[in-house]
Specification:
Elements lengths: L6 E2 L2 E2 L9 E3 L6 H4 L13 E4 L3 H14 L3 E4 L15 E4 L6 E4 L4 E4 L5 H9 L3 E2 L10 H6 L7 H4 L6 E7 L5 E5 L4 H7 L8 E8 L1 E2 L3 E10 L3 H13 L5 E9 L14 E9 L3 H14 L4 E2 L2 E4 H6 L10 E9 L4 H10 L9 E6 L3 H4 L14 E9 L8 H12 L18 H8 L3 H11 L22
Parallel strand pairs: 4-6, 5-6
Antiparallel strand pairs: 1-2, 3-4, 7-8, 8-12, 9-13, 10-11, 10-12, 14-16, 14-17, 14-18, 15-16, 15-20, 19-21, 20-21
Helix pairs in contact: 10-12
Length: 472
């Protein structure tokens, strides 16, 4: 491969002779596969995809791109809806082959390379009955979720994914290496925990693990369309006082034709309350009684199950290769007016795969100080994700308009903030600033110290304080 490469983007190649991985350019076999992302609505054509087998490869690719004056993106799992893992006419530093996961059960630590997915981390840690907060889809990449903050079924008990980061080995914009932790490069560590990939390339994560055991009490409660408002009343009452071990997400959708959905409910309008209790399972049975009995569900599928089974239960609803477009808000506790909007818009999509999902936050997320890390949303009760999705990929779909209209209608009932990982690529700077909230100015100052030239800008970009503008 190296011998055949003479130029990239019209520029002479130099310095790539030390690269040990695979270099892929537009006229190479496998190029289209290499640039394929989870979100098939993203269609970008990099000049070079540098598939790295180690941190040294990432350093070589970074050095080359900077010397050649080419824009850079960094790919971990490639799962972000915005498509930030790819950059047109630039160099993709592709870390997806770097998937090693090492669990030290005695110290309750996991060392994870940036190409790993959360299903791989869960598999390695659950052998020992351990876990750390992750997302709700096992195919989600470790790197992107973590640097964006990250939340999932275990977050109300143990905090954001980034709250459980112990250290990060990093490659900085100038090619130097650094370790970021609570006692080393503390400002950098603070920024990495929610700063969205703006400060360098993480080549290894170290996470704290927790004694979860291997089972949770979890699953969906499905309700019919005409039950929705009563169910939201019961839901609001339950989440107001729920213990930290309990999480309940509220989803509006057309019931899929999955095996676990009762045949009589498939392809009907449903409100789904997805429950998870991460603690003593007998106590969980008692805790969920009021919710399960408040309004009789059309189907009650809450049961004791392996944690990894629950973590992957909804993977089929958001597979790679579909087209996706998202809008999002952080929400305070749901008001009657907010519920009215959710019920009014929740079934107006045209694609049966689209949905909206209100994540249940608070708990251990809110127990930490607001400035504990760069991650936002500690004061939010929910994060609403409005997910337009279509099975045939491509850039356009009529449900994009539904998604935007729904989000606009929810705006008066939102906090004004937004979860950074749920932003698409058309939000504008004001919305990006809202994602970082009151931390933005401090983040911009740290950005100026560690990436003054804004090398890492294929993200929800933080401009260096008094530095150059966004390249995009």
């Amino acid at each position: 491969m190296l011998a055949a490469m003479k130029t990239i983007g019209g520029k002479a190649i130099g310095g790539l002779d030390r690269f040990q991985g695979t270099l892929i350019r537009p006229d190479d076999d496998g190029y289209d596969d290499a640039r394929r992302l989870w979100n098939a609505a993203i269609d970008r054509r990099p000049a070079l995809i540098a598939r790295c087998v180690g941190a040294n490869d990432a350093a070589v690719a970074l050095e080359y791109a900077r010397e050649a004056g080419l824009p850079i993106s960094v790919r971990g799992g490639g799962h972000n809806v915005s498509g930030s893992a790819l950059v047109d006419n630039g160099v993709v530093i592709d870390l997806s082959p770097m998937k090693r996961v090492e669990v030290d059960a005695s110290r309750r630590l996991a060392r994870v390379q940036p190409g790993a997915r959360w299903g791989e981390v869960d598999a390695a840690s659950q052998v020992h009955g351990l876990a750390t907060p992750a997302g709700i889809v096992s195919d989600t990449g470790v790197a992107g979720l973590t640097v964006g903050g990250g939340f999932g079924w275990l977050s109300r008990r143990w905090g954001l994914t980034s709250d459980n980061l112990v250290s990060a080995e990093m490659l900085l914009a100038d090619g130097s290496r650094a370790r970021a932790s609570s006692d080393e490069n503390q400002d950098l560590f603070w920024a990495v925990q929610g700063g969205g990939g703006n400060f360098g390339i993480v080549t290894e994560f170290e996470f704290a693990l927790h004694d979860l055991g291997t089972e949770v009490l979890a699953g969906p409660l499905l309700y019919r369309e005409d039950q929705a408002r009563e169910v939201f009343d019961a839901y609001r009452e339950f989440v107001a006082d729920a213990p930290n071990e309990a999480s309940v997400y509220a989803q509006m959708r057309i019931a899929p034709t999955f095996d676990w959905v009762p045949p009589e409910l498939r392809e009907t309008k449903v409100l789904v309350l997805i429950a998870c209790y991460a603690g003593d399972l007998d106590e969980g049975e008692r805790v969920f009684v009021p919710l399960r009995r408040a309004i009789t569900p059309a189907a009650d599928l809450v049961k004791r199950k392996p944690y990894v089974a629950h973590q992957s239960m909804f993977d089929a609803g958001v597979p790679p290769g579909w087209g996706y477009y998202w809008k999002s808000h952080y929400l305070p506790p749901l008001t009657d007016d907010a519920v009215d909007v959710i019920v009014r818009f929740g079934w107006q999509m045209t694609s049966p795969t689209a949905f909206s999902l209100a994540f249940h936050l608070g708990g251990a997320i809110a127990d930490r100080p607001a400035d504990f890390s760069a991650a936002s949303g500690r004061d939010a009760a929910h994060a609403l994700n409005i997910n337009a999705s279509w099975t045939d990929g491509g850039r356009e779909h009529r449900d994009i308009a539904w998604c935007r209209e729904y989000a606009a209608a929810m705006q008066p009932h939102a906090t004004g903030g937004v979860y950074m990982n749920f932003l698409h690529n058309d939000e504008g700077e004001a919305r990006i600033r809202a994602a970082y909230g009151p931390h933005y100015d401090r983040l911009a100052e740290i950005k100026a110290r560690f990436d003054p030239d804004n090398v890492f800008h294929s993200n929800q970009n933080i401009r260096p304080a008094d530095g150059p503008p966004n390249h995009s």
